Fold these 3 entries.
Entry 1:
Amino acid sequence: MILELKDVSKSYEKIVAVDAVSIEIKEGEVLGLVGPNGSGKSTLLKIMLGIARPTSGKVLVNGEELSEKGWKEFKRSVGYMPERVSFYDNLTGTETLRLFARVKGGRLRSLKGVIDRILSEDVLQRKVGGYSKGMRQRLNLAQALLNEPDFLVLDEPTSGLDPVGIKEFYDILDEVKSRKKLTAILSSHILAEIEDKTNRVAVIKNGSLKAIGRLEELCSGMKIPLRLYITISRKDVFLESLLKKEGAVDLSYKNGYLIASISRKNKLELISAIMDEKDRFSDFSIREPSLEEVFFGVH
Amino acid sequence: MFTDATRAIAHKELSDKLKSKWVVVIGSGFALFTLVITYFGGAPAGVSGFMSIDASIASLTSLVTYFIPILALTLGGGIIADEQEKGTLGIFLASPISVGEFIMGKFAGLAIALILSIVAGLGIAGAILIFKTGIDAVGPFLVFVVNSVILGVIFLSVSFLISILLYERTKVIALTIFVWLLFTIIYDLALIGLLIITKGEIGISLFSILLMFNPVDIYRILNFISIGEFQVLIGLASVELPAYIRTSMLLGISLIWIIAPLGISYYYFKKRYLE
């Protein structure tokens, strides 16, 4: 399945929430959607889910614009995990899943293996009112998987989870992906998550698509420099001048490192130059820019 | 229309109300009120004890016209705000159910809960009345209960419209109270004012039409014309109505009162949440 947005805009009276966004989501890929609060991410997700109609532009599913009936059929293969869902305190986990299973036309029984991995039987029999935030997020994931979706939309899926919970969440997601081909959109403010778990990243700001592509493509396209980390015990003026001579900029010392930004083009020459002075330091590494640097570079 | 999804949503709403003992508490409270009213309904005339069925219905009509509308309005007033606050509205909207299925499921579940509480509340008093006054009271009392249920379902439908038009809870509460006051007090006062200003020259046809715009007046008239010969001097229902005002017509208008707010709710729900 391929979902395509062609020049999609969405306005609410005078406010432009989404401005001429074109995105194609390929079958089997995980697309990261990143942007600050109010950037239009949620509105874009709603348009992709058929919850909001664009003011202009087209939404195509497998090359076709969908009718109301078509959207209903499309939603049979969609799993949506909204941000901040508290569910119903007076229902048990099982009752909650049973409700949404019937609403989605899914069957709770057939997903027992997956559900068990997400929430234990003991927890499922308890009322949701007694769940922790992490348990509610797991329940949220479980309901999103109820109809064995082909297309999964996750809005800030690890919000409220601790690091162990985050790891477990992605382990479960990997397991789900291993069972069937899954296309997913992952919206998150935790940029490190997006970096590791997505095939491509789309950066949204003020409703516009600022950049889309693989992280390496975004970095090279935006000419974001690499970061050189030299392990060094004390300040070394000679090493600093050598780096500057080879085109390094933004030199600084932090936590036992001499850090510098270096161009991708002449990194080999620079490495060769500093290796001639290898007695002055104990180690070095070159790192790709983080998504924060790409993200903040866009902004 | 009553798909599995609709039934699932209806079941959830009904079981919520049963589990929270809402039906039991409201039904019990209502039953207590009705018993008190039927026993002490003649107190202003210096009479106590269970009266005839028509006199009892006359007393109960006054209770019902205030109690059931506010009950129904508060029952349905928070349906959308609740789902939004819990974050579950997005899950429903992204699911393969239509807006109609969603609204019908919610409405059906709450309507059943409301009907159970009305029947329980009135039924207990009715059983005692029938025991005291005789088997002939069964028919009129059943009709009274059905009319009361219709009134409740009308206001439940109106509450859905309020809930969908305003998703902020405080605004919903404010409009609910206003709507209750409008239909139980303000509207009839306005009609009385109109009668006074026109010195009674308004014309019975126009006056009858104006009564049809208030479900509470429709309910009073339904009781008046479909239950016994007792001259029920309850507000404006004491006016002599044209011959074409019949039970079938009033039931038809009541049906419109149920369907129209739901239809408008459907339209506004789609407009607000899906466009």
Entry 2:
Amino acid sequence: MSTETRSETSEPLAFSPGAEERFQRVLGKYPNTRAALLPSLYLAQEDFGYLSVQAMEYVAERLALPPSKVLQVATFYTMYYKKPHGTHHIEVCTSVPCCMMGGYGVVRHLEGKLGIGVGETTPDGRFTLTEAECLAGCGHAPLMQINGRYHEHLTPERIDEILDGLD
Amino acid sequence: MEKILTRNWNVEGGHTLAHYRSSGGYEAFRKALGLTPEAIIDEVKLSNLRGRGGAGFPTGVKWGFLPRESDVPKYLVINADEGEPGTFKDRYIMERDPHRLLEGCLISAWALGLKATYIYIRGEMVFGAEQLEAAIEELHEAGLLGEDIQGSGLSHDIHVHRGAGAYICGEETALIESLEGKAGQPRLKPPFPAVVGVFGCPTIVNNVETIACVPTIIERGGEWFAEQGSERNGGPKLAQLSGRVKNPGTYEVPSGLNLREFIFDEAWGGGILGDGALKGVIPGGSSCPVLTPDEIDVGMDFDQLMKAGSMGGTSGVIVISEDVCIVRLAARTAHFYHHESCGQCTPCREGTGWVARILDEIEAGRGRMEDLDLLLEICDNVEGNTICPLGDAMAMPVRAFLMKYRDEFEQHIREGACPFPEW
Ligand SMILES: Cc1cc2nc3c(=O)[nH]c(=O)nc-3n(C[C@H](O)[C@H](O)[C@H](O)COP(=O)(O)O)c2cc1C
Ligand code: SF4
Ligand code: FES
């Protein structure tokens, strides 16, 4: 894995100034600090690259929560990454309406093109491929998200074009 | 029909405060400030607005459950977790017309005496969350949010809270747990959120589309809104078409529109992809029992679809053509609910997985005839025996597939293979 993440350094973790500012704003949104846990985990994930044990302990300390509670939440939700992730996270919808419209064909095409299976990351750390459940775009199937952006009405040619356009 | 909910969707800059105001936006809020809270709640009752999140509960009645006086703050939580397969309407409201939702929040805040609104949006909807944040910022700048808004005495704030990838957080009590910073596991009811909701305070949970209807109800009156729908089902609604249909998409239709017309009329679905034959229709998102082609001469509202043996759900209509394998569809449905089960109740956690595995075996040509009755028995044991309706959401559609297309299941078992092409 060539992706460098701040999670892996041996120095004690701390939010970058930008993340710290956003963290303070998040705290102001809720009547108690516990409620700030989900947004704080997102901040830590963005700032440190992924949610290592160290990163989760840091969030626990900042919110004065037991580390076990933080771990429980971080593992319940699929959008928190407990190990390093590719720069581009490709998620293909294969839920009921999409699977009728070629969702699995998109998965197979990407597996062949990237040389990895679902749930895996390319050795150069550029791409992670996962299957997603319904992404609320069923009328534009088949579709995928890359880092949260929608790409709809996919064909093999469209997919190649989209991937070639990424850095 | 006049477009209301989708009016700004295809307009350049339609999501901005400037555009929303130029088409009369926030006039309903101004009007509401001149009305008593009781008068507003009465209009909403009169409108026959029913929750657009799936259950179809009358919104005015729900609002009536909120205590008028309270020593602790009261909250509005907007359910923007849209995750039921076949449903794609709330995302467009938030991306293309966020102010319609925000105006609805402000009117609700005035009518119900609410301290703040939390919009719980699916983590995957990154753009929707950005659009909402930008629209909220515009409101602050315009003095329409914050302390003593426009000298009305109403103080209110609206916050966006992103989920993190868990379908179950669409269930209102799981959503509340998640908003409080916990794993999204549904609570036992009662108490209902209107009594004990988020942060232990009285809370109204409503769907995005539900609250986006409120400005129109105040602008035109509850009676007008009720007239746009069918009996006891008021207003226009956003119906969605997906699957094997020529013109998939989200359409604004009167509540109670005929389902067959919606699929075949040129104004909407335009018929089956490739002009093939219709095999079945799931009328309201993947948790609703399938209807066969002879069952779809029915109005798309909560009561008529219930009478037809299915449910109105989210009005997410999924079209199945003759070349689609029902066994595979049933298996995929069961896998979805198994994957999304929060694991608290044994019947749901174990039953959804067991059903999915049996269906996989049948699809792979390794099924046995006795599996079919076993499937029905498991569905019976799951349904009604769980904390939240997610277990039912697996059991009801799987049972309907099996009862209505049983010969297709038997054919798989007899021939030891799936007779349909790969997808
Ligand atoms: C498993 C499950 C998932 C749900 N998902 C959603 C959802 O994504 N969006 C939604 O608005 N309601 C969803 N609901 C319904 C909510 O629990 C609740 O009824 C709704 O938010 C109430 O708002 P409404 O009355 O305006 O429809 C779900 C219910 C269950 C049981
Ligand atoms: S029915 Fe399923 S999802 Fe609902 S509370 Fe029980 S285990 Fe969780
Ligand atoms: S099923 Fe794929 S987006 Fe809904």
Entry 3:
Amino acid sequence: MAKNTHDVIVIGAGHNGLTAASYMAKAGLDVVVLEKNEWIGGAAVSRELYPGWKYSNCSYVCSLLRPEIMRDLELYKYGLQIIPYEGSVTMMRNGDYYAHYHDHDMTINSIRRHSHKDAEAYERYSRDVLRQCKIIKPLLKMTPPDLTSFKPKDLFGALEFAKHFAAKDELGGLGEKEIYDTIRFYTMSIRDYLDEYFESDITKAHLAGSAIIGTALGPCSPGSAYVLLHHYMGEVDGSVGAWGYSRGGMGSITKAMTGCLNAHGGEVKPDNEVVNVITKNGRAIGVATKKGDEYYAKKIVSNLDVKRTFLKITEESSLPGEFVERVKNFKIRGSSGKLNIALDGLPEFPCIPEGDPGGGGDMHFTETIEEMEGAYDDWKRGEWSRNPYVDMCIPSKSDPTMAAPGKHYMSVFIQYVPFNLANGGWNEERKQEFGRHIVNCIAEFSPNFRDLINHYEVRTPLELDNEVGLTEGNIFQGELTMDQLMFNRPVPGYAQYRTPLKNMYMCSSSTHPGGGVMGAPGANAAREVLIDMNIAQTGNYY
Amino acid sequence: MSDNYDVIVIGAGHNGLVCANILAKKNRKVLICEARENCGGLLEESITNFVPQIPLSVSSSLGGLPVKYKAKSSIALSESGQHIRLVGNQHIDHKVISGFSSKDADRYVKFHDKMSSFSKALGSFMMASPPRIMNNTFSDYFKLFKLGMNVRMLGKKKFNEFARMIGLNIADELEDNFENTLLQGLIAHDAVLGSNLGPRSPGSLINLLFRMATHDNSIFGGIYEIDGGSKAFVDTLLDISNKNKVEIKTSSSVKRCIAENDKAVGVELHNGEKIYAKKIISNADPRSTYFSLLGTENLDTDVKRRIKHHRSKGKVAKLSLSLNKQPEFINCDKDDLESRMVIAPSIDYIEEAFNPSKFDKLSMEPILEMKLKNSDQSNPVLDIQVQYASYGAQEGWDNIKDNYVDAVIKLIVKYAPDIQSCIETKAIVTPDDIEKNFHVTGGHWHHGEVQIDQLFMLRPIPGASQYRTHLDGLYMCGAGTHPGGGLTGIPGRNAAQAILEDA
């Protein structure tokens, strides 16, 4: 049995674990990251599952990754390149299409084809949503204050938090009216929110997609408007709300992070599954791996979701009962599936005019909010959506490294797919049936699509759970609802990345500000660890 | 121009009556203009069977309110006859639930305690008009501070729990606590009653807390029936009005509010008559108040937009079945029939009933709250609240009414096999009918959804949350204002206070 001692052990080499590790290694600590899989990256990976094609087989587009982190960790130096895409499109059954573009004026013109009123309203809409993005951005890199504490740190923290809503900023400050608008935005359903701006179904359906991706909410569920914000607050090259591909697939992000970590003396050890956190007198002192090795460190940081961390690898007896209860009740529901498809050529989508930049980004075919809500109703019953919301894209169109010349890789994200399938659960047969169902849905809009398929990989929430370690396959490691955001995330009273166990921390997407390939939870957690160790920090996250 | 009255109240619903009388007691000369022939608004035709007790602070500001209440228990009906009967007494309820699951029984007591303490904390600010933020008045900041302290005083653990609960859905909380689906269904029913939410919609939990805050802070304890029916209640209010010399003009529909120099100075009736007063108070719902009384020409676009998107689609229809004899409900005795009988057997059932209603369609398996009236007479009436009967149903109420009524009866047959043979006549009042007959936009019980974005300082719309509208001298006192509907009289009382403050 090998004994290893380090300053810090990070459990899980997902993007948040690697971010936290890199920040701590940069601050001079001896960091080791233990990863259960043979590959590195968690849900931000590029894998060649079929010869000749690279799949971003979990997360597939990039926007949320905080630019401060890219700069602090010099990710560009370690090979990260983001290729922004030009637009997005919803295909319609009547042969028409609805597109949004990177260019605001082009979008307005495009919307005008469907509704003049909506085109006008879009100006107001994009202004209002952008405003909300600006308000939330500074909060992403803050540790949520403990509202019940009277410690100066928390009192100031609460003030600071409130200040972002109440105080003046470069845009002239939030007035009373805007504070009310902010409260409403955080609590409304996306359907009600969009109804206040738009009249046409297609505009609303296209925009509402961002509010449901990855969540167990429908467009009519109060709180879904916030999820939209969660998908909008990212940026590519300073362009807020833009999305892009990571060149070489999403794995390039975690590869660059690993590069940074290694350059600062840290190390990732794949194929080392942590099965137990070793505690002594209420402190975490190390971890034991499946292979039988033990690692000891001053600080343990878990990048596993809060359920896995405290219900699987930590002894329940070492934790307060109420905390365990809360963790058990933490809502983390699988609602999405994915198809990764190797294509022999570019599929034709006759709805989209040739050369339209809208086709370069994400493509959908849900035309009304009602359809979308119907898809959610299926999920509530434990079925996959008969008429799902699909977010598909072909990264190889702008990134030649994903497939051989002339060949293409297509990523199809599907909302909604239950983790607990009714009537007996998932098995291989039903998984394949689900895959065929999605292929049929897409083939409705693309006559040559089926013939081009060389291979496809079907991923249900079950695969995401087993393979990547996301409980129930929830891509955010916990629902993004009001009861699980900010100082409630993951558990009220433990929103500051610390846990009931001394020397043990959380850095996963289960913590503030939540999921998406953002890195903010990792960076925030690293800051808290370093504060507790009295180590001076530099960079944007201090 | 001379002021004939100090105050004109538009609409003689219970909140209008409460408001008028409080002002009259303060020596204001008050006139109420009511569009219908009778007073009492939605109370008049007893749209609701079960009510909370009027809070003490409201009745005392009226100088006492001699209304008698009868406490009622709630029964969750089960097809198997294994009904759950809850009376609101923790010991008894614990025993009842133990019969189903001892784990649930213990959890129920805990859950009840937790919810009660939260609803108490909420209740303390239902009695005051909501503060406005950044209004820069000391009293508003103090109110906010007090509210924060009220919640903070619950203790650290409870504060955390409260913060978590605000946005939570009731289904999650119930599934975390209980294993009996019938019990889950019963509580979930109360959380979504009268609203546009399903049990899995975030925010349904705060809906329940709001309801509890007006119902003795108890989940099933605060259900009452007015002795003599709601007519007795209206008569009492009219007696008081008489004593306080409040003038009431019935069949006097107000066409618009007369404004001079950006100030409300009187009302014009549909028959052309103009009556002047120093203050005008509208008991109408917010949309009617703004669009019909105040008129759009006086509003800026922002306010117009907010009012236009104020959500107030009613979801509850009332079905009355006149019977020729007392029906046999499986495993129910006479007392049970006079209690509140609920058909909402599980969370999933409610959610399925809710699903079509999101897009104004009707579920043929709705959830029901029933009560047998005149049970000792030869012609009893089964009064049924049918939830998720959407306002403006896509199918068209005129086309589907009969089928819908049949579907509801078919549903009741499962619990009372002989009901068909007892029925003499059936009458349904849909939200569309409520809108038409009672002049309530959308036919909504609460004059507007009780959801976080339409609550407290956002109720009915930001900027008009302190009972004052965007026109000087025009006030609101209906259920559309804080703290919302239910037979509480609190909006009426709070509005009266706002007016007295301004005088």
